[in-house]
Amino acid sequence: MRVSGRLDVHSVPEVRAALHAAVDRGSGRLVVNVDGVVVADATGLGVLVGAHRRAQRAGRELVLRDVPLPALRLVRVTRLHRVLHLDDGAAGAGGPHPAVARLRPRAQNRRVETSSTPRRAS
Fold it and tell me: Fewest CB within a 10 Å sphere: which of 19, 39, 42, 87?
């Protein structure tokens, strides 16, 4: 199955219906290619998580293939990479998306002392 375009509050009802129908009528692994998806809001992520849960209840596995980097960043920030099954589409893949490991949280703003001399109180 392929999903593309904006995934937001306006498009979620039809995407949800299509995903639910695909989960209900098949068996085994359901691979959803999302290479053209733009996740625009939390509702878009919610429909993917809902389809994942529905697939689990049906004894199936929902796999998101070729997740675009902006969507992948959003999945990582929300920690949904721990819940959703991501696949980069490479032959023999099926494990975690390789880009997930490369995404690092932004460094905190920390003051780094470069001098060995203690600072004086001002």
Answer: 42
Q: How far apart (Å, rounded) are the C-alpha atoms in residues 3 and 34? A: 5
Strands in 29-39's sheet, in edge-to-edge order, are 2-7, 29-39, 61-65, 85-87
Q: Express each pLDDT in 8-27 by its tens digit.
A: 889 899 999 999 999 999 88
- The dihedral sign for the CA sequence 15, 59, 69, 71: positive
Contact 20, 53 (CB under 8 A): no
Q: What is the pTM of this model?
A: 0.70
- Those residues with Cβ within 8 angstroms of residue 29's Cβ, 6 or more apart along the chain or in another chain: 60, 61, 63
Rounded Cα–Cα distance for residues 52 and 63 (Å): 8
Q: State which CATH number among 3.30.750.24, 2.115.10.20, 3.30.420.40, 3.40.640.10 fits the domain covering 2-102.
A: 3.30.750.24
